[in-house]
């Protein structure tokens, strides 16, 4: 199961795009709040589970929507609800993974974040930068240029260049497509390069079937012509859909497991170890017994507790060092993982010495 989360302010076509991507109607009974209601609106987390069939294979997706994002007067830390939700799914998986029954663990971890960027500004806004920087260590961010049918082709091209430059300038780590092997087919390499050059994906959504020249398709009619959602000349919609449900779904899940979740897991183990070391030190100070204790000297109840605490710390340390962060073919995640591991090992040495 793949779990994407949808983030972006109201009016950027999030609902319409999701309905178009997965040929469904998730928001049939939704009530749209008026301007007064939006002033103090908070970000909600709404989960939809749908089933789709792709080339005869049935897939299940859990789509996490965030209505209310960026709609309030004060949007400071409006992404906190999204961050908390991602952490909650990591925490639940960590608890299940650490339990006795690990055969049927349900994976609800968030595998990608579709971030909608307004086409009406001059690039990324402060809320875009702050939100993506707050979340890029936790999830695969895929930026989307919303409502691409409101722009000319030249405007789409220039905005993409500017947004890619700003993403790099502000140090935002978006999802990196895996590097092709040297023996890969040339056509495959070309398609991968097209994907990389298309970031942020310029997308259009529509719930309306348009009849034009004897064909019916999802699109929009304008005085100057008709926009076809799945026409690659008009938008990157088809490219995004193929990436999510065909070509890169497994890689998104792999990066989540090997990088983002492993970082969270290592941090949890480090925090648990620190708590146990502090608890052990309190027991030592309270008992006035030299430490470490020889095994034969474990006579009193206090000494037994100290010995057990020390054993728990040793087990956790060996567990941490025995589960290094996995490497991945993504350039930025390799450096990120190595740096994270170095920081964790340094912190662990400080814990032991303290």
Automatic annotation (TrEMBL):
Any one of the GO CC terms: cytoplasm
Segments forming domain Septin-type G: 1-271
Protein name: Septin 4a
Family that this chain belongs to: Belongs to the TRAFAC class TrmE-Era-EngA-EngB-Septin-like GTPase superfamily. Septin GTPase family.
Keyword tags: Cell cycle, Cell division, Cytoplasm, GTP-binding, Nucleotide-binding
Compartments it resides in: Cytoplasm
GO biological process terms held by the UniProt record: cell division
Coiled coil: none
Domain of life of the native organism: Eukaryota
Gene3D superfamilies, per database record: P-loop containing nucleotide triphosphate hydrolases
Main location: cytoplasm
Lineage: Eukaryota, Metazoa, Chordata, Craniata, Vertebrata
Important for dimerization (site feature) positions: 120
Keyword Repeat carried by entry: no
GO terms, molecular function: GTP binding
